[in-house]
Amino acid sequence: MADESQPSQPMPVPVDESHIVATYANFCRVTGTPEELIVDFGLNKQVAGTSPETIQLTQRIIVNFFTAKRLAYALSMAVARHEQAFGQLETDVQKRVVHQQQSAKA
What we know:
Elements: E1 27-32, E2 36-43, E3 56-64, H1 65-86, H2 93-96
């Protein structure tokens, strides 16, 4: 008879990765409806302080709110582990820019 005091381990879900397409994105936009979230990804080629350029969106993922909540939790845990290993991430670009001081003697 099986020991019922042991919690059952979740079974791994088989996945097929043969059709994955990897794309780099440094920009995302989140919109949605009452039933789902729409997350668009693209590449922002602008350097801080340059004139605005249109960001080309290249990928869209649509998820229901249950999946969005699980994704938010997984991303939060991954970022927390990264920050624990490498330090706090600053998302404000202006705070990350290193301003070189001008020499008083010119």
